[in-house]
Amino acid sequence: MAGKSPHESEAHRVRERVLRSRERIWRVEDFEGTPKAVNNELRRLVDRSELQRIRRGVYWRGRTSRFGMRGVDDGEALQTVVGQDEAIGATGWNATNVLGLSTQVAPIESLAVTHRAPQGLGHIKVVSRTARTGRRKAGLNGLEVTVLEALEGWDRYVEVGPAEALQRFGLVLQRSDVRIAKLVSASTTEPPVVRERLRAILIETGHEAEAQRIPRARDQRTREKALRVLERRT
């Protein structure tokens, strides 16, 4: 009986490794062999619903059952693509909905990252915040990033009135998984409007010392525009 060709052997090794795995990301470079042979076998596994393609060269092997393979969580896929040190959080309607500031649900999940937005993640919208490196440097978690995103989008995405919004931001700041010192540290690379709103909320909620560490916007008109969302509180 004739032996397997080199490409058939490569494909077999790829297939065996993938089918033995559970709940993990696979990349083309994880396998020995020619990239073409590896890619071809990974695509065949996708066609057989044994793998899920996340983006070019990146695949997910989920746990299987009689109902099929469990798909990868969008946030988990994004974290894998951009790196474990990335600070990822909700943005837009997703951010304000998470914090109880709106009832709107976006048709597609929107997440903010501090790297260039990766391509090929069709189930989520990724917003790039490349200048806001303070988030990553401070090691913000998802909720903390969401707070900063909600502050920036207050004009467009907050449905409740100023007084209620201030109260809800205050409740979020009381949570054990929200570290005010980290938010203050990350604020140095945030836009002036975010800094001014964070500063105002900290003052209103009794964190005067922390608020004073946040750099002020240089332009008076910028400060006034940022704080307009807090006017007419009842």
Describe it for me?
This protein is α+β, with helices and mostly antiparallel strands and 234 residues long. Helix content is 46%, strand content 12%. It has twelve helices and eight strands. The strands form three sheets. Strands 1-3-2 form a three-stranded antiparallel β-sheet, with helices on both faces. Strands 6-7-8 form a three-stranded mixed β-sheet. A two-stranded antiparallel ribbon has the order 4-5. A hairpin with a 2-residue loop joins strand 4 (64-65) and strand 5. The protein is elongated and about 70 Å long. It starts with 5 loop residues before the first helix and ends in a 7-residue tail after the last helix.
The total of beta strands comes to 8
Structural class: alpha+beta
Distance between the termini: 86 Å
Instruction: Please state how the strands of the largest beta sheet are arranged side by side.
Output: 1-3-2
Specify Rg, calculated over alpha carbons: 23 Å
Which stretches are low in confidence, meaning pLDDT under 50 for 5 or more residues running?
A: none
Which percent band covers the strand fraction? 5-15%
The number of distinct helices, counting runs of at least 4 residues, comes to 12
Return the string of H and E elements.
HEHEEEEHEHEEHHHHHHHH
Helix content: 40-55%
Give the integer mean of the pLDDT values: 85
Main β-sheet: number of strands, strand sense, barrel status? 3 strands, antiparallel
> Judging from the principal axes of the Cα atoms, what is the shape?
elongated
